[in-house]
Amino acid sequence: MIYADYNGSAPICEDVKEYFIKRLQDGPFANPNSIHRLGTKVLTAMENSRAICAKTLGAKYTQVIFNSGATEGITQVFHSVLDSAKDDGQNIVITSGIEHSAVINCAKFYVNKGYTHKIVPTLSNGVIDFDQLKEWLKEFKGRIALVAIMAANNETGVIQPFEEIASICTKNEVPFLCDTTQFIGKCHFDFQKTNIDYAVTSGHKFGALTGTGILLAKHPGKLHPLVIGGGQEKGIRGGTQNYLGYETLAVALDSFTKNAGKYEDLKVKRLEFEKEIKKRFPQVVILGEDAPRVCSTTYISYPGVHGQAVQIELESSDIFVTTSSACSDNEPVTSKVLKAMGVSDEVGRGVVRISLGHCSPLESYDKILEALTNAYEKLGKIKSY
Ligand SMILES: Cc1ncc(COP(=O)(O)O)c(C=O)c1O
């Protein structure tokens, strides 16, 4: 079996599995807020995990807020920043058109509350139009409440100029939320160096337990709790902490740091794979190919062959990829990310996303190459649209 949907959710990584099994056997289990000895032990383990996460992500210990994942972090930042910004004359929210729906739907929520949502265009290579963003920051000076742009796209893997965005937002005193969900655990990330105001991620994208995540905040005191509760996470996120889950965040991030070199090997192997599949099928298109991409994602299309059909073919060889196209009436449609890049339906309906991680054996690409070749040879003869 080859699991090639890491961008959807990564399997629990080996280091985490080993740690967690032992942790479940050994305990202790207690409420980290209890003052007895077991509670204190649990609290210490959780706070050690916070320190490891902070160190790995280049953040201060106090800037790490544990939560359930990126969706929660994004929602909390939107609510914290936008609940009052309009009263100060800042009524514009800027996002790109390739953001995850967790961001887009928050922006839409605030449009209903009187905000204007401006969408930065995306260039055909999958990178946002930074010049347009710069112009808007000038044109709407003093009126922008929040800029929310991702670090790496979940479909294409294309890396956005988030460090430049952070620096220009800082210069213009505009809060910048960077969705780092697809970047953390694949690339080295340094929160303080980048000068981002808020960054979010989900543990299940990099081998920790599902339902865990991190919100990094330059100034945590500016955040309002979404869940009020009893003052946990310094009053920023109420409710008894998922301490076992948070411990896995630290183990997974530590495992990523130790295995960072594997990503370099993966990158070389992926490029070989892409080169070879293009040689065999010159009509295939690799989306975002010319832009900087995370090293483990290939978003590939054989125009005229449904991505879903390719996915099913690969699944019959026990290879799990995804198409990411939304479906209406069983008709795959071009995703909003590809539409934002100006990709035609001919290409857009044919995509599959192959995404691996540092735990994937390098030979996975050899097996995927052969299975994809078989699928394209078979399905290419009976073009489906
Ligand atoms: C870029 C990006 N942002 C946010 C999310 C939301 O993550 P979660 O569903 O874990 O909260 C995802 C998940 O696919 C994602 O890829």
Automatic annotation (TrEMBL):
Organism: Halobacteriovorax marinus (strain ATCC BAA-682 / DSM 15412 / SJ)
Catalysis performed (reactions): (sulfur carrier)-H + L-cysteine = (sulfur carrier)-SH + L-alanine
Protein family per UniProt: Belongs to the class-V pyridoxal-phosphate-dependent aminotransferase family. NifS/IscS subfamily.
Gene name for this UniProt entry: nifS
Alphabetized InterPro entries for the sequence: Aminotrans_V_dom, Cysteine_dSase, PyrdxlP-dep_Trfase, PyrdxlP-dep_Trfase_major, PyrdxlP-dep_Trfase_small
Family matches, as Pfam families: Aminotran_5
Cofactors demanded by this protein: pyridoxal 5'-phosphate
A Gene Ontology molecular function term of the record: cysteine desulfurase activity
Keyword Transferase: yes
Keywords: Iron, Iron-sulfur, Metal-binding, Pyridoxal phosphate, Transferase
Name of the featured protein: Cysteine desulfurase
Annotated Aminotransferase class V domain residues: 2-361
